[in-house]
């Protein structure tokens, strides 16, 4: 599969945004990040927190989601050209993603997204043979439906507030001062939710694919239309998409400033998606106009996205958790943004140097070995394909 440079660079951009957004979770926990009143923030940190909530959180993971759908179609096209069993290759890939995600979430960090992408891969199998127009229609329908579901305010009961408060206070103490085993035990056993109904969990599991599907489907449609393969020709479309950036920022700002409004969740969801499209478009314009070392660095990080994603967790949990430097809850939001910039700059440098000697990252190699069932990571053709080729060669052999 021939790699699209702009797509790899966009994947690097999404990893940068995901790192900045995850700084909220690394420092305050996956539940504490939205209950910031439990932590002491300075004036500058408060502004930095609002900046992340408006400009970053929820708007870079959709980029990664879009790229997942895009890469899925390109992978399907490549496998078909090599005459191999597409679905079995994809299924093996999704199984490994789920496995890595479970290991990542269980033993290292609570904010894993790999398992989610693995499960979504199985959901997307029903769409890989659909036409571009069909994918767009389904994406729009699901986007409108899931956005409308955000209307209203979900009132918390006194019991829910008390349980969440107790959980955040306990998490702050354990994550800041605890050992590795104490933190792992707390992460895997404590539950801040009052509703523990199996039916509720089942409802969430069934609903989640439909709520997140639109960007996956739009990415798949973009791949079927060969978008991003001719950046110079596509400039006008990038400029149209870039208009969505200020619109997305305005909508997300409204959702943050008016959280008690019944429309807040709709504004947040709509704004996050539009902002992600705006970021993609603006980055594509800059990439086309200024193909310099900065964008090549993003490309390098994107090529090693799986390895770099896990490395971000290793580095940040070591900095913030008690078994490392123990800065959980005390580092400050502005300092976290600066730290994120430093970590990503290091990843850009190291990834660029690494790719001068190696073609793939450690985890990318493991992924290819498992997916292709080949120690060298190359795709092995099916027995039927080999027999067919051998037959053709024999027929063309002069007597």
Compose a concise summary of this entry.
This protein is mainly alpha-helical and 399 residues long.
Model description:
It is a single chain. The chain is mainly α and 399 residues long. It has helices at 5-28, 43-56, 61-81, 86-107, 114-124, 132-148, 158-177, 180-189, 198-224, 235-242, 244-257, 264-289, 293-303, 305-320, 333-354, 362-372, 383-396. α1 (5-28) crosses α2, α2 (43-56) crosses α11 (244-257) and α11 packs antiparallel against α12. The protein has one domain. It contains 17 helices and no strands.
Mean pLDDT: 88
Enumerate the spans where pLDDT stays under 50 for 5 or more consecutive residues: none
Q: How far do the termini sit from each other? A: 36 Å
Q: Quickly give the structural class.
A: mainly alpha
Q: Which percent range fits the helix content?
A: over 70%
Question: How many domains in all?
Answer: 1
Number of helices: 17
Name the quaternary structure. Answer: single chain
Radius of gyration: 22 Å
Q: Give me the strand/helix succession.
A: HHHHHHHHHHHHHHHHH
Descriptive key words:
single chain; 399 residues; mainly alpha; 17 helices; 0% strand
Please give the structural blueprint.
Elements: H1 5-28, H2 43-56, H3 61-81, H4 86-107, H5 114-124, H6 132-148, H7 158-177, H8 180-189, H9 198-224, H10 235-242, H11 244-257, H12 264-289, H13 293-303, H14 305-320, H15 333-354, H16 362-372, H17 383-396
């Amino acid at each position: 599969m021939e790699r699209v440079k702009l797509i790899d660079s966009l994947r690097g951009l999404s990893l940068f945004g995901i790192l900045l957004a995850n700084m909220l979770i690394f420092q305050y926990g996956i539940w504490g990040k939205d209950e910031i009143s439990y932590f002491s923030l300075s004036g500058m940190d408060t502004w930095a927190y609002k900046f992340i909530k408006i400009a970053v959180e929820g708007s870079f993971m959709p980029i990664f989601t879009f790229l997942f759908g895009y890469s899925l179609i390109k992978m399907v096209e490549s496998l078909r050209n090599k005459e191999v069993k597409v679905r079995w290759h994809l299924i093996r890939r999704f199984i490994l993603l789920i496995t890595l995600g479970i290991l990542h979430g269980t033993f290292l960090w609570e904010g894993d997204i790999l398992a989610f992408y693995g499960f979504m891969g199985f959901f997307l199998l029903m769409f890989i043979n659909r036409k571009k127009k069909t994918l767009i229609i389904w994406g729009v329908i699901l986007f409108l439906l899931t956005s409308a579901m955000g209307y209203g305010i979900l009132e918390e009961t006194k019991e829910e507030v008390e349980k969440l408060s107790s959980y955040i206070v306990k998490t702050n103490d354990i994550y800041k001062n605890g050992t590795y085993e104490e933190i792992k035990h707390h992460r895997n056993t404590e539950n801040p939710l009052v509703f523990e109904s199996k039916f509720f969990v089942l409802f969430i599991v069934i609903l989640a694919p439909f709520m997140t599907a639109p960007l996956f489907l739009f990415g798949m449609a973009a791949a079927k239309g060969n978008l991003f393969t001719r950046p110079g020709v596509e400039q006008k479309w990038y400029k149209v998409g870039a208009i969505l950036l200020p619109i997305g920022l305005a909508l997300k700002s409204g959702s943050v400033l008016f959280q008690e409004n019944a429309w807040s969740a709709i504004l947040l969801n709509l704004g996050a998606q539009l902002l992600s499209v705006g970021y993609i478009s603006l980055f594509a314009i800059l990439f086309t106009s200024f193909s310099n070392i900065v964008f090549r660095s993003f490309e390098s990080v994107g090529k090693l996205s799986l390895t770099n994603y896990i490395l971000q967790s290793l580095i940040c949990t070591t900095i913030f958790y008690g078994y490392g430097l123990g800065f959980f809850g005390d580092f400050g939001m502005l300092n976290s943004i600066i730290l994120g910039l430093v970590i990503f700059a290091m990843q850009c440098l190291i990834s660029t140097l690494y790719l001068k000697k190696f073609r793939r990252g450690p985890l990318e190699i493991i992924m290819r070995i498992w997916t292709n069932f080949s120690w060298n990571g190359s795709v092995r053709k099916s027995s039927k394909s080999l027999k067919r080729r051998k037959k053709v060669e024999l027929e063309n052999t002069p007597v």
